[in-house]
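Writing this down once: the sequence line spells out the residues, with the fold written below as integer tokens. This is how one looks:
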Amino acid sequence: MSDFFEKLAGSEKLKEENVKKPIEEEKEEGELAVDVFQTDNEIIIQSTIAGVKAEDLDITIQNDMISIRGERKKEIEVPPENYFYQECYWGPFSRQIILPEEIDVEKVEARLKNGILTLILPKAEKTKTTRIKVKEIE
């Protein structure tokens, strides 16, 4: 019974087999969580990427897809047996998003403020349908 109360009180150190292995040891790439929404004139993509510097981001647009890649680097190395909880993701991440509309690639903006990446993608001007009258030439 005292074992139960030690766990409940948090005084028992977690055994190594109960601690999740660091994601970077699993050699996987994390997937970036995003919000994608629109205004009348723009598509906006936002993502929380705390701990990532602008120079560690790579954003590309190809056809109708935008790719965001980066890496969240650890500042200190901690041996796995010293962790009580390890929930933060450290290492490379990426996300590809199919754009719902055509955008004006020349006017795209990317901003990083307080750990939030905001991509502003102006919508391309829609071509209006114009009826053309055919003249008959004799």
Observations:
- Residues 11-18 have pLDDT under 50 and may be disordered.
- The longest helix spans residues 2-9.
- The first strand starts at residue 30 and ends at 31.
